[in-house]
Amino acid sequence: MALALVMGGMQPTIAATPAAATLLQTPAPPPPPETALWWHSAGDAVLDQLIERGLATDKPLACEAQALHRDGGKARTRDKRLDRRIARLFGAAGAEADSADLQARAYDYADHRARLAARIAATYLDVRRLQEIATLRRKMQAQFKDNAEIARFRREAGLVDGLDVGLAGSLVAINGSSLDADRQTFEDKARELADLTGMDETTLLASLGEEGKVPDLTIAAAAMPADKATPPTGIALYRADLAALERRLTAGLLRDGVGAQDIASALSVSGGDAGADEKAALAARSLGRLRAAENDARAQIARERDAMTATAARLATLDRKARDSRATAASARVAYRNGMVPFSALYAAEAAGSGLSEAGIGARATLAGSAVRLARALGLGWVTGDLQPGPVGISSTEVLVCE
Q1: Residue 99 within any structural domain of the chain
Q2: Could you tell me which of 253, 262, 248, 249 has the C-alpha nearest to residue 272?
Q3: N or C: which end of the chain has fewer CB within 10 A?
Q4: How far apart are the first and last CA of the chain?
């Protein structure tokens, strides 16, 4: 993120963008809201509603917005009362540093909103994964019970020994135990999602429905080629956390008396080594911290993109194997009914088909989660309007109490 260290003329209020004067890098232009707020166009209306509700009802966010609104108003009032002659005589670095700190807090708030949206999405995907696996296992349980009935009939007819009945029963028992465990895990995750979105569990479960499916999220920036989604080196990433760091570094430099000439001196030296000039060295160190943070962010983007590519390839393989395995299991059922194969062959085919189908569901959930994490790494999840929150309340019937 561009390090805006030349502070001439900056007002002590929350700004929607960094100061016009920048250090080293050009700020990335903000993406359009429909891209930045990725959940609006992700293709899942329930997720969209849950994230919006979570952002609107989260008390820590509301308190953070309230404090920003209050402190921004105080800063504007102080600025109006500032004696310009005194400011010219003694400088206004303190007020400008306070303004930079306030802007850093505004970017923190925007980043916290983006983080909460991503957390809600991750929990929602877990809930949908558990729902889809439970639906699959209920369907398979009916099939396994049918297999067990056939084994029992064949045992009573003297066609097979008791081993078939035992194997069939164990498959029913194992799947039933998994269903019971899944139910508890689902309830825990649903409770977590309800807490994140400010909903009671009954209302949340009604919105989720009885049967769920992992969504194929459409996040435009995550689907773009790397050279289009990520600004090239020299153009700052559009990330609120990096902007907050830049503002705090700016505030620290201002308080240390670092001015525009010192910054220019630091930049004019190759590698950012400002030599013996103390103030220029301070500017160079701040620049180094910002460069390191930006490099880490770019590495994170690359990791998430690689993870998406690997998961997509694994999912394609799993889908192909699952289709083949389901066909094998269907053939094995017919063959067992006709006495052509032992139950052990059917057992192996059913277990393989079920396992591959569940692995495919897990991979689709992982792929959707990777898209959300990539969107987060790219800096999506906030818009410039989030930097200037208005008066906030949780609801018309609840008084917001902040510490």
Answers
A1: yes
A2: 262
A3: C
A4: 32
Q: In 57-157, at which residue ranges do the beta strands (DSSP E only) sit?
A: none
Measured between alpha carbons, how far is 359 from 354 in angstroms, rounded to an integer? 9
Please state, in angstroms and as integers, the Cα–Cα distance from residue 202 to each residue in 50, 190, 207, following that order: 14, 10, 9
Residue 233: domain span: 36-138+189-387
CATH number, residue 337 = 1.20.1600.10
- Segment 178-213, tens digit of pLDDT: 888 888 899 999 999 999 999 999 999 999 998 889
What is the spatial distance between Cα 114 and Cα 36, in angstroms, rounded to a whole number?
Answer: 10
Q: Which pLDDT does position 139 carry in this prediction?
A: 87
Band (20; pLDDT cuts 50, 70, 90) = very low
Asked if residues 20 and 307 have their Cβ atoms less than 8 Å apart, the reply is no
**Does the predicted TM-score (pTM) go above 0.70?**
yes
Show the 3-state SS of 153-178: HHHHCCCCCHHHHHHHHHHHHHHHHH
- 299 burial class (0-12, 13-18, 19+ CB within 10 angstroms)? exposed
Whether the Cβ atoms of residue 242 and residue 78 lie closer than 8 Å to each other: no
In a domain, 254, yes or no: yes
